[in-house]
């Protein structure tokens, strides 16, 4: 096993001279500093830092870096996704700037999974729970560097970016800044990373050839870094981070690997040190006012419904008011959608075009005119949002990126980020509706703006009544789609896939197939699972209570008639069981029948559900569940545990 011709393997030293020089210690430091703080200096010079510079301001850089790159950029080991690929370059640029300015940067990594890679597999059962785990590890790393004076987060994708935001939100008086890792570019001749995930379903239906599938699957991720090219969870989280004021203006959706991208890390390093000098902590930036702005930008962009899980979690971490469903409803009713971008359209522009059209600050200019923003909110620039937008309106950066979009792609920036009147004329409706009904007494979520307009009535209402096809596993549901068992007019119902069953898996494998199959817009989907940010169509998720918690959706049977009504203008809706082909019921009658029925056959937690996710499901459930952001409310968890211990003690005494 250990055969080798190298003689130098056994020239093993037993001592070393150690770093040259002396630590700049003082009598006061030796008398008052903790031993860990002193030994930390020893560790720093032991790793090669100059002793004379070791007392600079310590800054921690946390990132979701993954994979191993050679010096020339060639991969030696792959990360999980393109978002891992290049952010080490951002860290390098930021660290060099920190060092130039006399700070002492430290770097630690908490990598993240890829939701695209785990779609349709048991790996998806760890997706949402991972967010809390990663945020916890990041917070532990922050606390484990006691000398840190400020924290920079660098992240890109679906779970790592929200986790980093949760960790930064907990900093309170410490300065913190987020550097979005950017987006990958679309292929010049090919499909985007969302559509390409449907090649299996389209091939099974004979809609594409093997040769075509092989070619487009090869080129969809056209550049090696950044998040996907559509406004999914990763891109929406970048938008939200900037809207919260946690990231520099015009940083969301920046194309990975480009000079303007790496320069962002340099400016972010400067901004973080300036916040440290001025005493600006995260609690000064992350406020109820900035939280409102983030929800407004989510609606204006038409963002991922996964942010309905992440924004409340950020609020909880920052000890702010957690937004309720009624708060989301109020904002979505008042905020127009202004961005025409993948996956919602109406024109499927990739996210890089949204960046070049002006990105978040450009959208904010329109929203400010409508009086929808809290413009006195402070940002990590050290200036208020109002001051930032005044700068943006007349900036050279704004002029040049918008000009570049017209020159490079022949696209008018105002056709990507629309004025409110133009958005109305083109039929852009508000983003999210929260339907209720006898199948969703605790509510549900649909990205109503993504319903194909051809299936809406003249009054912008989606009305669909069809027979249920009920499945208890995503594997069986996608097999049914590929086999042709799902027909136009059907309502595909997937149950038992909420937090208790699968960790609230994403079901993009299903929603993407329905979007890109020729008949898919004639099919509705109802589930207690959640959707990928790139999902579109008449897809109702987050149904509560979930089936395994006794929700009525868990008592549906194939052949039951489901009635769905979604008003895309007034943002109201319902999803109801209304009988069967032979006998129609009112929603109230349907409710009574559902209450009397047993649970569907085969309804059970997935046999591959890991114990780690079972624990997550239990903890987030007693903390308020998905509607509260799937967080850990420690006080509530302890309260429930203590009540349980007392109940068990009484039970033992009685026996």
TrEMBL record:
Span of the signal peptide: none
Superkingdom field: Bacteria
InterPro entries: Dehydratase_YjhG/YagF, Dihydro-acid_dehy_C, DiOHA_6PGluconate_deHydtase_CS, ILV_EDD_C, ILV_EDD_N, IlvD/EDD_N
Bias (Basic and acidic residues): 1-10
Region (Disordered): 1-24
Residue ranges of every copy of the Dihydroxy-acid/6-phosphogluconate dehydratase C-terminal domain listed in the record: 436-576
UniProt keyword list: 2Fe-2S, Amino-acid biosynthesis, Branched-chain amino acid biosynthesis, Iron, Iron-sulfur, Lyase, Metal-binding
Molecular function terms, GO-annotated: xylonate dehydratase activity
Record's keyword annotation contains Lyase: yes
EC numbers: 4.2.1.82
PROSITE patterns attached to this UniProt entry: ILVD_EDD_1 (PS00886), ILVD_EDD_2 (PS00887)
Dihydroxy-acid/6-phosphogluconate dehydratase N-terminal domain segment(s): 81-387
Gene3D superfamilies associated with the record: IlvD/EDD C-terminal domain-like
Keyword Iron: yes
Enzyme class, UniProt record, top EC level: lyase
Family membership: Belongs to the IlvD/Edd family.
PANTHER family, per database record: D-XYLONATE DEHYDRATASE, D-XYLONATE DEHYDRATASE YAGF-RELATED
Name of the protein in its database record: YjhG/YagF family D-xylonate dehydratase
Native source organism of the sequence: Alicyclobacillus fastidiosus
């Amino acid at each position: 096993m250990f055969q080798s011709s190298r003689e130098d393997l056994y020239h093993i030293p037993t001592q070393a001279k150690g770093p040259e020089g002396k630590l700049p210690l003082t009598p006061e430091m030796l008398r008052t500093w903790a031993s860990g703080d002193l030994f930390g200096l020893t560790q720093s010079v032991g790793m090669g830092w100059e002793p004379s510079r070791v007392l600079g301001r310590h800054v921690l850089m946390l990132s979701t870096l993954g994979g191993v790159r050679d010096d020339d950029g060639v991969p030696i080991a792959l990360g999980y996704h393109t978002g891992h690929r290049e952010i080490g370059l951002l860290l390098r640029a930021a660290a060099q700037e920190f060092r130039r300015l006399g700070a002492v940067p430290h770097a630690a990594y908490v990598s993240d999974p890829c939701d695209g890679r785990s779609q349709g597999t048991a790996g998806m059962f760890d997706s949402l729970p991972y967010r809390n785990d990663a945020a916890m590890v990041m917070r532990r790393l922050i606390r484990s560097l006691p000398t840190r004076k400020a924290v920079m987060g660098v992240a890109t994708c679906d779970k790592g970016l929200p986790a980093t935001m949760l960790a930064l939100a907990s900093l309170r008086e410490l300065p913190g800044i987020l550097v979005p890792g950017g987006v990958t570019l679309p292929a010049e001749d090919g499909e985007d990373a969302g559509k390409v995930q449907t090649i299996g379903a389209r091939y099974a239906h004979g809609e594409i050839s093997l040769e075509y599938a092989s070619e487009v699957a090869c080129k969809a991720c056209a550049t090696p870094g950044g998040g996907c090219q559509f406004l999914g969870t990763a891109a929406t989280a970048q938008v939200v981070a900037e809207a919260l004021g946690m990231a520099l203006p015009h940083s969301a959706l920046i194309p990975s690997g480009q000079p303007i991208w790496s320069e962002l890390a340099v400016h972010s390093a400067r901004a973080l040190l300036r916040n440290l000098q001025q005493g600006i902590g995260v609690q000064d930036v992350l406020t109820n006012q900035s939280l409102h702005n983030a929800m407004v930008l989510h609606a204006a962009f038409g963002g991922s419904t996964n942010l309905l899980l992440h924004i409340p979690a950020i609020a909880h971490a920052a000890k702010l008011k957690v937004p309720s469903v009624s708060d989301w409803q109020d904002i979505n009713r008042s905020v127009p959608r202004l961005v025409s971008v993948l996956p919602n359209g109406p024109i499927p522009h990739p996210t890089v075009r949204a960046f070049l059209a002006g990105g978040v600050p450009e959208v904010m200019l329109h929203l400010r005119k409508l009086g929808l923003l809290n413009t006195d909110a402070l940002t990590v620039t050290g200036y208020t949002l109002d001051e930032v937008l005044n700068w943006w309106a007349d900036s050279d950066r704004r002029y040049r990126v918008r000009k570049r979009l017209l020159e490079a792609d022949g696209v008018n920036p105002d056709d990507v980020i629309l004025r409110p009147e133009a958005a109305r004329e083109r039929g852009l409706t508000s983003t999210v509706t929260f339907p209720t009904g006898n199948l969703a007494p605790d509510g549900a979520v649909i990205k109503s703006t993504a319903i194909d307009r051809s299936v809406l009535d003249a009054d912008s209402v989606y009305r669909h009544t069809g027979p249920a096809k009920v499945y208890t596993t995503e594997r069986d549901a996608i097999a049914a789609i590929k086999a042709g068992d799902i027909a136009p007019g059907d309502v595909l119902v997937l149950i038992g896939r909420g937090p208790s069953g699968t960790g609230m898996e994403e079901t993009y494998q299903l929603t993407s197939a329905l979007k890109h199959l020729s008949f898919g817009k004639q099919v509705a989907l109802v589930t207690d699972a959640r959707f990928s940010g790139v999902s579109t169509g008449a897809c109702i998720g987050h149904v509560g209570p979930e089936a395994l918690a006794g929700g009525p959706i868990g008592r549906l049977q194939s052949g039951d008639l489901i009635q769905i009504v979604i008003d895309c203008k007034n943002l109201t809706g319902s999803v109801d069981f209304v009988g069967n082909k032979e006998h129609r019921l009112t929603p109230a009658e349907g409710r009574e029948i559902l209450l009397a029925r047993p649970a569907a056959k085969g309804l059970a937690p997935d046999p591959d559900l890991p114990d780690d996710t079972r624990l997550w499901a239990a903890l987030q459930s007693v903390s308020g569940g998905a509607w509260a952001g799937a967080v850990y409310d420690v006080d509530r968890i302890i309260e429930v545990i203590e009540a349980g211990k007392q109940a068990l003690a009484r039970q033992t005494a009685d026996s």
